[in-house]
Amino acid sequence: MTGPAPEPVPADVLEGLPEPGEMPRAHQRTTRKRLPLWDRVKFLLLFALAFFALVWSSMADDPILPFPDAMRLMVRSGKGITIMVLFGIELLRQIHFLVSEHWPWYHRLWTDGIFGGVERATHRVFSDWTRFRLLRVFKWLLVIGLLALILGSVLHTSPAMALFQIPALLWSAMPTFIQVVFILFVGVGQFAAIFWFLSRGGVDVYFPDDVKTRFSDVWGQDHVLERVKENIVYLENPEAIESRGGYVPGGILLWGPPGTGKTLMAEAVAGETGKPYVFVDPGAFINMFFGVGVLKVKSLFRKLRKLALRYGGVIVFFDEADSLGNRGALAQGGQGGFPRGMTPAPFQTGGCHGFSYLSEDSRWALTRQSLHQDRVVMGGGMGGGGGGMGTLEALLTELSGLKKPRGFINRYVRRTLGMRPKPPPKYRILVMMATNLPEALDEALLRPGRIDRIYKVGYPSKAGRVRTYQGYLDKVKHELTEEQIDKLATITPYATGATIKDMVNEALITATRDDRDTITWRDIIRAKQLKELGPAENVEYIERERHAVAVHEACHAVVAYRTRHHMEIDIATIEKGSGYLGMVASIPPEDQFTTWRSHYESDIYVSLASLAGERMFFDGDSSSGVSGDLESATAVATNMEGVWGMGSTVSSYATSNRLGVGTPGAPPKGEKNDISARRALADRIEDSLGEMLQRTEKILKENRRQVLALAHALEAHKTLTGEDVIAVVEGRRGPLIDGSIYADDQFIAEIEAYHRAALTAHRNHARLTTALPSREPGNVVVVDGNPALDDLAIWRRPAPAPAPPD
Q1: Is 241 exposed, middle or buried (0-12, 13-18, 19+ CB in 10 A)?
Q2: pTM score > 0.70 for this model?
Q3: Environment class of residue 630 by beta-carbon count within 10 Å: exposed (0-12), middle (13-18) or buried (19+)?
Q4: Does 606 share its domain with 646?
Q5: Contact 54, 74 (CB under 8 A)
Q6: Tens of pLDDT, residues 549-568
């Protein structure tokens, strides 16, 4: 609904701001507003001070003149009479105000009758603001006149001449004045120099020619990059949105895991726009003295405003923005306390999950109860952020506070002359922040108007990882094909731009160590294993323990290959690491966001494979190395039975216990009954794990040959890639290992004999004297790896023999 158009305001009214005391009021007062005591007596004190200054001047000219005589002489003189007349007029004026404050009829007489008539008669000639300025000029003339009277009496000259002698008096007093000012300057300058020195540093300015990064250098985050580009359009052409009544978004928060390209994206924004790029160090506002952080904030934004006016815009980037505040999202109270763009999935609307069907009150009630029981404290401390008290508040004020008019003449001279200062210009400042702890940011910092857009920069998708690998590999010489790069992106599901860059660089170092300048597939796999597993400990197993560890990991790998179809084997190793004797790691072949019951069951099969395999291959004996596997299997089975609805019950045990309802299936009262129900749950979990253990044993019996073959390959080569594991299991050639030798029944028989010897050594706790079987298919030989460098032992063809001489 649109109302009538407002009437145009006269130009003389817009010329200046109205006097605060003359602002329009909603209703007319019946009496005059009471004056404060200072406003009532200030002019009376001024006239009294002027009178006694003249008396003091007379006594100074005649030292023997007593004070009463000096008073009488001044009363009779023209100067004294003038001041007393002014004093009497001011006294009558204050009496008039006092009566108007208590007598409504008297106030209406003067306001509506006498002064009201004069105001109505002069309204067309003088506006309210003009009358206010004339009154201010009259007050200044009054003060100057009194000053002239006093100086004339002191200097024994006329008041007019005394005014002309003021510059000479000031000049004669200048040496003393300069000394006093110099002393004050030295005293204050010491503190100013200290705080100026402490407020330096932490801010680096890069001018357009210094930033070479472009959007083409940012890979794997195209969805975020497209949104950021919109801000660039509005920064370079703000009229496109301001002409339509909008405003240019001035703040962007990039949050996500480390290494995903948040800082690189901010540099690309600066490089594409050709604007200065100001980088704010995370510790710039952390200081040992209160107030230094505030000075740094003020100095930073003064610099930003200057750069914005000079270059038409500026980009400031706060890295690790969580150092600015640490009160946290939930600690800021109330519903909707999660910052925009960072709401956890249970609190998001429209998602397909249990919380989305609850009211917001129920969500918060469950969340608070969970936090209370789990004793989780979100946020920390009091105050205004990591930089000390006042730093965060100063930053908030600068981001969206009132902007003062620029320039001394504009701010003071124009206002002194009764002219309205020119409004401040529109500073084109794009504020970008990055953090991997968004919950630590203050909610006031993230409100619209300060941070207008919040984007999550997460782990890149597979297509993004492929593009990132291609980008970094194009900078070096390599022999990797497109299929290998696609495979590499698949086996590194959580690789970020930083980890990909580091992996390619490590592969280049590996190639350089071998006096090569071209990266091969073997180099990139070695680099991956070194980065994920770290350098292997340079230890050697005794023969029977090496065989036991190899059988243990081979059981994991074979069961994973046969049952875990939603994942691929990434690596299998028996090289001892910092916290393991061996390991088999699997990765999803594609980006997956849901997990099914069959997936969890296959995970349990793989976990139980170690126990089932050790019992099967070592005559019922098993090691303590299966404890971690059993813990994982039990945790998954418990969640399937009591939380995920994948067992014989539907309700969630964890939620029922948290809410104090008790265990589902138990009577409502009685601790004994509740304990029995919990035992029933444990029994169902045990039965489920027992059935899965039997299925795992069956799988291993059907694949005994493959387990022993893979155990032999692990003993021979220590570390195998996922593709080589599959090659051994299927008896074919792999990319680094030739598994076709395990298709030979005679060689498998030798491996069985070796296993029986290892079993005998295990039973008798004796040394294994039988050598590990080896076979060279054709011209293929076994090359042992270098454990110190985490080098893979591979099957490779020897160099051809030199041709005989002619």
Answers
A1: middle
A2: no
A3: middle
A4: yes
A5: yes
A6: 999 999 999 999 999 888 88
